[in-house]
């Protein structure tokens, strides 16, 4: 038995929209993928929050969580994450309290501190660029609203109170790692797009962890971009869809998924190639044997309790196949 066999596998979905597709098709693909990974034994399926991005259909996170939970039967469903600066804690508590009431024991609430939007979008969300500075206080308010009603409590989330929806803190820096440690909460690091501080953040989280009613020891999840295929060559080819999307993000172009290409060499400048490479520094790209070695290395070096994959391949069938490959590797470990 290896550490890989003891590591839970989960999926993070940004609900990518293809260049020739529609938002409706992207949503249908996401439900199909959720059902597929549920059958494979994946532990949870999370939806991201992004706004004003033409190739990303994951804006109404709570609505999407209900859609996925309603279309599946066992897998945990939640947010990866709700960007708390964009929302009043009471509204979040009511939304996820409602989800937890509809789907008991299956809902997670992952919280991020970044707004995940530009200034124009922030204004449209009626938020200020300074929102987020009170993140610890708002996390505390959410914990109270989702917890037991206290004598004399004047503000009650209905539904929400007494649901004890599990709260996760998400981040790509050290701030949320420190806060998750102080509050004794599970922690997820966004190494699927910003791996630079991964090891430092995990060390801060574990070294400062304070046991709580939620956890008696640290529990860490690590984000991993996944591009698995039957051969290394095919995986490298399919991963170019993600590289083109990252390049489009750097250039301010459309983020819709585009088909893979034989080579990226003529498509980016050296500094762009380096930037995309940094974003995908933790990516797992290859055939089964290379993927196994890479996953075992990540788990060994990070001590992750759980890996949460992103898998923005152009074809749904290729995403499903990639999940088949890692599920089989975990089973055989």
Q: Which labels suit this protein?
A:
globular, 11 helices, eight-stranded parallel beta barrel, 333 residues
Low-confidence stretches: none
| C-alpha geometry | globular
Mean pLDDT, as a whole number?
A: 95
Helix amount:
40-55%
CATH superfamily: Luciferase-like domain
Instruction: Tell me the strand order in the biggest sheet.
Output: 1-2-3-4-5-6-7-9
Number of helices: 11
Class by helix and strand content? alpha/beta
CATH topology description: TIM Barrel
How large a portion of the residues is in β-strands, by DSSP E?
5-15%
Largest sheet: 8 strands, parallel, barrel
The H-and-E topology, N to C, reads as: EHEHEHEHHEHEHEHHEHEH
Number of strands: 9
**Spatial separation of the terminal alpha carbons:** 6 Å
CATH class categorisation? Alpha Beta
Q: So what's the oligomer here?
A: single chain
State the domain count: 1
Can you offer a commentary on this structure?
By secondary structure, the protein is α/β, with parallel strands linked by helices. The protein has one domain: TIM Barrel (Alpha-Beta Barrel), CATH 3.20.20.30. The chain has eleven helices and nine strands. It has helices at 23-39, 61-70, 89-102, 119-124, 135-146, 175-183, 198-207, 232-251, 270-279, 288-302, 316-332, and strands spanning 8-13, 44-47, 76-83, 107-112, 167-171, 187-189, 220-228, 284-286, 306-310. Strands 1-2-3-4-5-6-7-9 form an eight-stranded parallel beta barrel, surrounded by eight helices. β1 (8-13), α1 and β2 form a beta-alpha-beta unit. The longest helix is centred in the last third of the chain and has 20 residues, at 232-251. The radius of gyration is 19 Å and the shape is globular. It starts with 7 loop residues before the first strand and ends with a helix. The relative contact order is 0.15. The mean pLDDT is 95.
